[in-house]
Amino acid sequence: MSDELKGVILQRDKQTYAIVPRTPLGLVTPEILEKVANVAKKYNIPIIKITSAQQLALVGIKPESVNEIWRELGMDVGPAIEICVHYVQACPGTAVCRFGIQDSLDLGGRLEKLFVGTAMPAKVKIGVSGCPFNCGEGIVKDFGAYGKKAGWTVTFGGNSGLRPRAGDVIAEDISTEDVIELAKKCFDYYSKNAKGKERTARFIERIGIDEFKKAVLK
What we know:
- By secondary structure, the chain is α+β, with helices and mostly antiparallel strands.
- It has six helices and nine strands.
- The chain is globular.
- The longest helix has 18 residues, at 176-193.
- A five-stranded mixed β-sheet has the order 5-6-7-8-9.
- It has two domains: 8-73, Ribosomal Protein S8, Chain: A, domain 1 (2-Layer Sandwich), CATH 3.30.1370; 85-217, Sulfite Reductase Hemoprotein, domain 1.
């Protein structure tokens, strides 16, 4: 990544860059879409990709255009390659979905504000779902929560990569406030005890889920 250019990811051709404007929970407005469309046309951006992180990646940008595009967008950088909490993925929950049981957008938004961009031993992803169908994919995220009638079920240590792992359930039927407090404890313990670049899945496999639960639930 260039020190002179804001929020860039060098592409395969080693001549152009991608940028990822931050769109929390994948929520966008007509104004945001208009800005993205306008810069894409003005600067001949060849690819706009909706990522698995519910972000918009603008790909194929010439270096001399990067900072001006950021200025015209007026948006924050969405972490994409940094060693930190990258994003919170959330389903619509009770806002619109007929299957929603808990308010996933509210919880997801609060977790986004608290943690996205926070330094961690390795990249971290969060998933929140308003019901057990788990459309927010929290089961395979580092920290996940899904709603049931009695409250939230929380999981930790999930991964969807080359060595996939379903996160372990560490709490059930808890309130939104309790999910937030538990997330703080989980990430604090993980930050202090994981090895460098050790994802939560490998961390839990190394220390054992019982040891982890003993530490964060006491």
